[in-house]
Amino acid sequence: MKVRVASAGTGKTTSLVARFLERVGDGEPLRRIAGVTFTRSAAAELRERVGEGLDAILRDGTYLGGLVTAPKGSEALYLEARRELDGATLTTIHGYMRLGLRLSAPLLGLDPDFTSLAEWEAESIFDEELAGVLLLAGDPDHTLHEAAIQLGPKAHERALDLFGSRSLTENVTAAEGDTQATDLVALYRAAYQRYLARTGASRIAPSEVERRALAMVRTPAAIARLVERTPRVVVDEYQDVNPLQGRFFEALQQGGIQVEVVGDPKQSIYGFRHADVNVFRSALAAGEVLDPLTDTRRHATLVAHFLNRLTQTLAKENWGFAPEEAPEVTPAGSQREVRGRIEVHWITEAPRLDDARPLEADVLAERLAAAHEQGTPFSDMAVLARNYAGLERVRKTLEAKGIPAVLRQGRGYYERTEIRDLVHALHVGLDAKRDTLAAWLRGPFGGLDPAQVDQVLKSDAPLKILEERHPDLHARLARTQEAVLERPLEALRILLRERLISGKRFIDLLERRQRENVDALLFEVAERPPGELDVLLQRLNLLAERAKEAGDVPSEGEGVTLITIHGAKGLEWPLVALFDVGAGRKPNSDAVHIHDDRVHVRNGPGFQEARKAIRNREDGESFRLLYVAASRARDTLILTGSVTKRGVNGWAKAIDAMGLGPKAESREREDFLLQRHPFASGEVNQDASSTPRHANEPHALAQASWTLQSFPDSSLPPVESPSRIRGKGEEDFEPSEPIAYGVRSEESEGRLPGQAIAVGTLLHDAIRRDAQPDDTREIELLRAQEVMFPYAPEEQDRFLEEVQAMLATYHQLLGNTLPALEARTTDLREWPVALPDGRQVWQGVIDRLYQADGTWYLDDYKTDRDMHPERYAFQLAVYRQAVRLVLGTEPVARLVNLRDGSIYVLPETILEQAWAARTKGL
Same domain for 178 and 104? Predict the structure, then answer.
């Protein structure tokens, strides 16, 4: 295997194109060379660049001024390669694996027309099979009964985690002596075998593609066929492959295929996708190492000097990579003549990092404003952060200072599967035509297999067939159609957060990075909310089309680009600012680890050693993330960070080791600035160049008269919750059909401070999510609520028992005194209310607003031990008035006491009196 290290900006893709052109010139047909890279967009770019190289050779006889020169008499070879380009094997890793599998499908027991199974769908199928295994394991005679008992309620969650990590090891094996791991692996294997039997030979998810590809390259007849088809494979971004993919390429080399890889260990930052930099290191140790690429045409002189110093420091400390993985780079081309600029700013002596970050964002905004004053357009600037929370903080600061900014998501964002799934759902909600319905049915919201989709779409009345054969999907479609009637942001929230997919939310099906992507979409819509849904869809479709054409995702508007570091990979800007370099990495808290091909479970033997190894690996990746971020800058690099009195942490350690930390002496020259901004002063140190334009100029306009006006004093604040206004009357409200469900004793002794509020909050959340009282997993989730944090575990247990009892009462009411959920044509949960009323705004939440049998009901859930319904007359009056104004209907307003199952219907006269009394001071 031939291996080459290519640092950021050194022309890695150009070197790959040159390699293709050289091989074609030597007589090797393009159709026999496979180009493999990490993403579809990168594969498309490689195809385009190879085409441009072939065109240049045919036109000029050389590529890039002599980088490749066509041998004499080779024109026919390049013409043949140009004709073969569209059919050439330039694809992703999984695409190449699928090619090999299809070549030998019958030999490997596969359907040659097998389809790809999305990872979320694979996880959903495994989830169902796992639930089935656990159900059977409840039988004392079942072989896994004891394992399920020992694993307890965490069994399901931990087995799912193991399934999501299966690309880390070829054989899932328990660590020696770890009985919990042994039980978990046994449970996992039983569910995994059922999963494989269910998906069969015609539907294969990415991790199973990898496993089957490994079996293929170990089959002599199959590898011989692949060698004949592509005797040479060139792999890009090799630092991003996972362990199974690495073993696949090693087996290709052993099977007779010439494998050439190029990558940069310093840019291995996709551990969350199971990338393992050690795969590249193994290739470096065992392969033929080619000269590294060291000429950077991206970086100005000072930026290149900073990067060299950074990589030397990190390599010396073994923070992320070794010295042989960090060759020095030299500016080349036009960048050799550009000096560049570096700035480092520290907010020091902060009590907490969170306290200092607003000041840090202010410093960053002032430096961007100063750079703009000196001639750098805002559109040539980018601010990078680890996550969208940091970007949102910067966005708000820039907006407050009048600096335009655009939140962007990186290459191919609008074509990502999770984004398109949401777009399909919005489309089908607006108009369930056959084409939109097809995409929806195949995606996560529908979940039908191709045969079922065909049955629905080929009928004369697809929606009728859907209702007859898949009533749950028909109801889901109806809810989606209701959702799109809301404002676009609310419609997205419903699709993301409601349990529409067999009791699960859409976000529950997503991996961490995918959840970040949909969060970014919500930020974008919230920032520039369209008035109509079709406007949002047009915007998303347009951006997706542009992404296909340009490869880069443009966003509406001009201004400073705000993007995560992972999203910025492969991109560059004249000025890059890196925000929050003083933050540390959040430690891994997983309960299951795979290390050295062994499964370790928390508290088991070897778990702490495995966790330490994994955290060391993640620390290394964190430092590599710093290198990736800094190397996006062409001419100017600005770093801002905050530190507490405890000292430096995270990336700040690396910058401090370079001699540029918060205790270094402040320095300033034309091309370099190191500055401290003490937190205690509350002020940002500025020089003349950093002062924003007009900052000290007096206002030119006269003061408007209305600025001197004020509101008269009121007995109530401008915004108030109606639930805080308690009625004083002693009206006697009798419950309608009181029901005694035997809720346990209501003795008030032993109640803890805040217990009533905590229990009420937990109960309302459980009802909102349609949790079942006997669903222990749902009940346990309530422990994560913030209201539980002040209480000890045994106190939390008491709260959950109380919630469980009242939740049981609620479910006994459904279909009895309360309409069943399935009988409701419209069902709105926790409907927010903001009702303007003169100088007052009443703000609250209606627990449940729904329509059944043509009647609207407004239910407010109570947990009072001593019920006095007259106290809530004003609260219900406000909510009823809001429903009147918004829906134009008169709801039946009721109090539902979940301690004893009693329901109080408040008479209209009482509600009218309560609403009128608001003008009398209540």
Answer: no
